[in-house]
Amino acid sequence: QGQEKLSCNPKKENGTHVVLCELGNPMKAGARITVDMELSVSGLEDIGEAITFHLQLRSKNSPSPSNASVTVTVPVEAEAEMELRGNSLPATTVLPTSWHWVEGSQRLEDHGIKVEHVYELHNKGPSTVSGVTLSIVIPHLLGDHVLLYLLELGTEGGMNCSHHPPLNPAQV
Fold this sequence. Notes:
The chain is mainly beta. It has strands at 7-13, 16-22, 50-56, 69-75, 80-89, 116-126, 141-142, 145-146.
Protein backbone atom coordinates (compact mmCIF):
# COMPACT_ATOMS: atom_id res chain seq x y z
CA GLN A 1 0.00 0.00 0.00
CA GLY A 2 2.64 2.52 0.99
CA GLN A 3 6.36 2.98 0.75
CA GLU A 4 8.71 2.30 3.61
CA LYS A 5 12.46 2.51 3.98
CA LEU A 6 14.15 -0.74 4.88
CA SER A 7 16.63 -1.10 7.66
CA CYS A 8 19.65 -2.95 6.24
CA ASN A 9 22.80 -4.12 8.01
CA PRO A 10 26.04 -5.01 6.18
CA LYS A 11 28.17 -7.86 7.52
CA LYS A 12 30.76 -10.39 6.36
CA GLU A 13 29.74 -14.01 6.09
CA ASN A 14 32.24 -16.69 4.99
CA GLY A 15 34.48 -14.07 3.30
CA THR A 16 31.54 -12.60 1.38
CA HIS A 17 29.97 -9.19 1.90
CA VAL A 18 26.34 -9.67 2.91
CA VAL A 19 23.62 -7.07 3.40
CA LEU A 20 20.64 -8.21 5.47
CA CYS A 21 17.39 -6.29 5.13
CA GLU A 22 14.38 -6.94 7.35
CA LEU A 23 11.23 -6.81 5.18
CA GLY A 24 8.62 -7.16 7.87
CA ASN A 25 7.64 -9.24 10.83
CA PRO A 26 5.12 -10.71 11.01
CA MET A 27 4.08 -10.89 7.37
CA LYS A 28 0.64 -12.22 6.48
CA ALA A 29 0.38 -15.42 4.45
CA GLY A 30 0.18 -14.72 0.70
CA ALA A 31 1.45 -11.15 1.11
CA ARG A 32 3.13 -9.65 -1.97
CA ILE A 33 5.75 -6.96 -1.71
CA THR A 34 8.03 -5.20 -4.16
CA VAL A 35 11.50 -4.10 -3.10
CA ASP A 36 13.66 -1.62 -5.01
CA MET A 37 17.27 -1.60 -3.83
CA GLU A 38 20.03 0.82 -4.71
CA LEU A 39 23.51 -0.46 -3.93
CA SER A 40 26.66 1.63 -3.98
CA VAL A 41 29.83 -0.43 -4.46
CA SER A 42 33.32 1.08 -4.32
CA GLY A 43 36.71 -0.28 -5.34
CA LEU A 44 35.66 -1.70 -8.71
CA GLU A 45 38.78 -0.60 -10.62
CA ASP A 46 40.18 -4.12 -10.93
CA ILE A 47 36.96 -6.14 -10.61
CA GLY A 48 36.69 -7.06 -14.28
CA GLU A 49 33.79 -6.61 -16.67
CA ALA A 50 30.88 -7.38 -14.31
CA ILE A 51 29.85 -7.76 -10.69
CA THR A 52 27.40 -10.42 -9.58
CA PHE A 53 24.85 -10.12 -6.79
CA HIS A 54 23.19 -13.18 -5.26
CA LEU A 55 19.80 -12.23 -3.82
CA GLN A 56 17.97 -14.61 -1.54
CA LEU A 57 14.64 -14.35 0.26
CA ARG A 58 14.72 -16.23 3.55
CA SER A 59 11.96 -16.72 6.04
CA LYS A 60 12.52 -17.14 9.75
CA ASN A 61 9.45 -19.38 9.93
CA SER A 62 10.15 -22.96 10.80
CA PRO A 63 10.03 -24.92 8.57
CA SER A 64 10.62 -22.43 5.73
CA PRO A 65 8.50 -23.25 2.68
CA SER A 66 11.07 -21.84 0.22
CA ASN A 67 14.33 -19.99 0.09
CA ALA A 68 13.94 -18.39 -3.35
CA SER A 69 17.15 -16.96 -4.79
CA VAL A 70 18.16 -15.11 -7.94
CA THR A 71 21.52 -14.06 -9.40
CA VAL A 72 21.87 -10.61 -10.98
CA THR A 73 24.97 -9.70 -13.03
CA VAL A 74 25.61 -6.02 -13.63
CA PRO A 75 28.22 -4.87 -16.17
CA VAL A 76 30.96 -2.62 -14.78
CA GLU A 77 32.03 0.27 -16.96
CA ALA A 78 34.82 2.49 -15.72
CA GLU A 79 35.01 5.96 -17.16
CA ALA A 80 38.11 8.09 -17.13
CA GLU A 81 39.24 10.85 -19.42
CA MET A 82 42.96 10.89 -20.10
CA GLU A 83 44.86 13.95 -21.28
CA LEU A 84 48.39 13.99 -22.72
CA ARG A 85 50.39 17.19 -22.51
CA GLY A 86 53.81 17.62 -24.03
CA ASN A 87 56.42 20.22 -24.85
CA SER A 88 59.99 20.49 -26.05
CA LEU A 89 62.73 22.64 -24.59
CA PRO A 90 63.72 24.63 -26.61
CA ALA A 91 60.49 24.73 -28.55
CA THR A 92 62.32 25.33 -31.85
CA THR A 93 65.75 24.08 -32.83
CA VAL A 94 67.60 24.97 -36.03
CA LEU A 95 70.50 22.70 -36.87
CA PRO A 96 73.36 24.27 -38.82
CA THR A 97 73.83 22.70 -42.25
CA SER A 98 77.60 22.49 -41.73
CA TRP A 99 77.39 20.67 -38.37
CA HIS A 100 78.79 17.11 -38.22
CA TRP A 101 78.73 14.59 -35.45
CA VAL A 102 82.19 14.09 -33.94
CA GLU A 103 82.57 10.35 -33.72
CA GLY A 104 84.26 9.08 -30.57
CA SER A 105 83.80 12.36 -28.68
CA GLN A 106 82.58 12.24 -25.08
CA ARG A 107 81.40 15.86 -25.12
CA LEU A 108 77.62 16.40 -25.39
CA GLU A 109 77.97 19.44 -27.66
CA ASP A 110 79.81 17.29 -30.25
CA HIS A 111 76.70 15.11 -30.56
CA GLY A 112 74.20 17.88 -31.24
CA ILE A 113 72.00 20.47 -29.63
CA LYS A 114 70.28 19.37 -26.42
CA VAL A 115 66.50 19.08 -26.80
CA GLU A 116 64.37 17.89 -23.90
CA HIS A 117 60.90 16.44 -24.53
CA VAL A 118 58.52 16.36 -21.54
CA TYR A 119 55.20 14.49 -21.60
CA GLU A 120 52.59 14.48 -18.85
CA LEU A 121 49.71 12.01 -18.81
CA HIS A 122 46.82 13.24 -16.65
CA ASN A 123 43.73 11.35 -15.53
CA LYS A 124 40.84 13.79 -15.46
CA GLY A 125 38.57 11.12 -13.92
CA PRO A 126 36.07 10.37 -12.65
CA SER A 127 37.52 6.83 -12.19
CA THR A 128 41.05 5.77 -11.41
CA VAL A 129 43.01 3.95 -14.10
CA SER A 130 45.57 1.17 -14.15
CA GLY A 131 47.36 -0.74 -16.86
CA VAL A 132 47.72 2.29 -19.14
CA THR A 133 50.19 2.00 -22.00
CA LEU A 134 51.60 5.12 -23.62
CA SER A 135 53.73 4.63 -26.73
CA ILE A 136 55.86 7.53 -27.92
CA VAL A 137 57.81 7.02 -31.13
CA ILE A 138 60.75 9.38 -31.62
CA PRO A 139 62.58 9.29 -34.94
CA HIS A 140 66.24 8.82 -34.06
CA LEU A 141 67.64 7.97 -37.51
CA LEU A 142 67.34 9.68 -40.88
CA GLY A 143 68.51 7.05 -43.33
CA ASP A 144 71.87 5.93 -41.96
CA HIS A 145 72.50 9.19 -40.09
CA VAL A 146 71.71 9.94 -36.44
CA LEU A 147 68.87 12.45 -36.28
CA LEU A 148 68.36 12.45 -32.51
CA TYR A 149 70.86 10.97 -30.08
CA LEU A 150 68.75 9.59 -27.25
CA LEU A 151 70.59 10.30 -24.04
CA GLU A 152 68.26 9.45 -21.16
CA LEU A 153 64.70 8.62 -20.19
CA GLY A 154 63.20 9.61 -16.86
CA THR A 155 59.81 8.98 -15.29
CA GLU A 156 57.87 10.06 -12.23
CA GLY A 157 54.86 8.55 -10.51
CA GLY A 158 55.66 4.83 -10.46
CA MET A 159 55.69 4.26 -14.22
CA ASN A 160 57.65 1.58 -16.01
CA CYS A 161 59.29 2.41 -19.32
CA SER A 162 60.94 0.41 -22.03
CA HIS A 163 62.93 1.93 -24.82
CA HIS A 164 64.36 1.12 -28.20
CA PRO A 165 66.97 1.93 -29.43
CA PRO A 166 69.40 1.74 -26.50
CA LEU A 167 69.96 5.00 -24.66
CA ASN A 168 73.34 6.73 -24.84
CA PRO A 169 75.11 4.03 -26.90
CA ALA A 170 78.36 6.06 -27.12
CA GLN A 171 78.37 6.58 -23.30
CA VAL A 172 78.55 10.37 -23.65
